[in-house]
Amino acid sequence: MKATSRILWACFVVLFLTQNIYCQTDSSKTVNKKRLRTFTVASGAAYGLTLIGLNELWYKDSVKQSFHFFNDNAEWKQMDKIGHFYSAFYLSYGTSSALSWCGLQQRKANLWGSLAGFLIILPIEVFDGYSAAYGASAGDLMANAIGSGFFLAQSALWKEIRIQPKFSYHKTDYPALRPDILGDTFASELLKDYNGQTYWLSFDMDKFIKFPKWLNLAVGYGAEEMVYAHDGQNTAEGYQAYRQYYLALDFDLTGIKTRSKALKTIFAIASMIKLPAPTIEFSSKGARLYAFYF
Predict the structure, then answer these.
(1) Which residue, 22, 198, 205, 268, shows the most beta carbons closer than 10 Å to its own?
(2) How far apart are CA 247 and CA 52, in angstroms?
(3) pLDDT for position 26
(4) For residue range 5-30, what is the model confidence (pLDDT) as tens digits?
(5) Under 8 Å CB-to-CB from 211, ≥6 apart: which residues?
(6) Which residues contact 116 (CB under 8 A, 6 or more apart)?
């Protein structure tokens, strides 16, 4: 399971803070040095405390060894890698938004934001690399880079985000089989149970063709019957892990016009999550239609 649950948790915290700041105040046309200094000091302190907390919670009592890599690319049907992509994208997006709020030119804010999104997660791989229980993952690093790059590429190509990663979760019965790995509370299951997670790319269709501003189309990816990390382990225990692909409607709340700064903040945060909507699932078990899937 490695660092994915920790990264997702940190991602939601950082995005809540940065998007809240950004939505409450219009971007300045010139660099506001006071804002930039305040943001740098506050975010640096919060990041430092987060790393200290992670070290105390996950690494303090683990056996240390020389730095090493661990190949986990075949685990969990790559759901953990998509989690890294998602987290790096939003850490880049959130940092860019905050830097824009500080008055940086948008192109520079996007560039530094994408770089920060990658570097924010990097120390966790370093921690893992020195832990005998884990090991740094080249696949994780690649997913982090792609996530940050996906944000930067859209910002450069369209000057806006038109394809937005999203996340949804539904509770499953699998954590009861391995609560130490898949979670033993709703909060831990949300982060650890890949069987209930779905990652999406939501296309802002009105930016490409004539389409309602509040309605998007989304494609999703998930997997199920994963009690163990590897397919061989699942098969040996009688589980047949399989991939799931989704096509769904989605709602773009930011397309709703409002003067309320509070609502703008709520809509910005909610845009990270795929809301329930009519969905078609495709898998090795056939096609399935949902009136509302989450």
Answers:
(1) 198
(2) 41
(3) 47
(4) 445 545 554 554 454 444 444 445 68
(5) 205
(6) 91, 92, 95
Give the C-alpha separation, 203 to 222, whole Å. 18
Helix ranges restricted to H, the chain: 4-24, 33-54, 79-101, 106-130, 138-158, 179-182, 186-192, 231-236, 261-270
Cβ 3 vs Cβ 72: under 8 Å:
no
d(CA 181, CA 192): 7
Long-range contacts made by residues 171-174, C-beta under 8 angstroms, separation at least 24?
171/196, 172/196, 172/224, 174/225, 174/226, 174/227
Which helix H or strand E contains 164, and what residues bound it? Answer: strand 163-169
Q: Are 264 and 275 in contact (CB under 8 A)?
A: no
Tokens of 164: 């937005």
* Whether pTM exceeds 0.70: yes
Q: What does each C-alpha distance from 240 to 3, 152, 204 come to in angstroms?
A: 25, 38, 35
Backbone angles phi, psi at 284, to 5 degrees: -65, -15
